[in-house]
Amino acid sequence: MRKFKTFTGKPAVLDRVNVDTDQIIPKQFLKRIEKSGYGQFLFFDWRFDDQGKENKEFELNKPQAQGANILVTGPNFGCGSSREHAPWALKDYGIDCIIAPSFADIFYNNCLKNGILVIKLPEEVIKDLMQRANASDYQLTVNLSEQEISDGQGFNYPFDFDPYWKEMLMNGWDEISLTLKHEDAILRYEETSGVL
User: What's the mean per-residue pLDDT of the chain?
Assistant: First the structure.
């Protein structure tokens, strides 16, 4: 997984509340056995019309959202079923960070486990950020080390973040790589316990 310390990226605004995982990745696309390849189906029912043509009114299809790797959205993002495919689709599409007032708990944890930085900010701060982010050349700098978001244009806001996940994301670790840090001790145990 990528290491998060400080990165600057382009935000896209999805000004909607209660976006559920079936909208993030509709159920008909859950047949793949890999974690990759889901990005093309992200928000499929909103991104495309009934004929499969791009819906030009959808927020992520607008010119200012192209190439965005930060998603700024409304409260209760990721509600609904607990499908891990939702963060897989966001990651595969290119989203590295999601900023919202609140997230569904399981979705929030699934994002962290899959290397997506999820940040909670107060709703009034999100509204301000959404207005700023609608400019085509707007960029945000996310500093996980200092737990701060800024834009170099007057927006500067701190955020709370769990110390465990901060260490995991800053080092680019997932739970498997964290376990493998103790590989020598695991091998010693296996050798002395007769497991091998």
Answer: 91
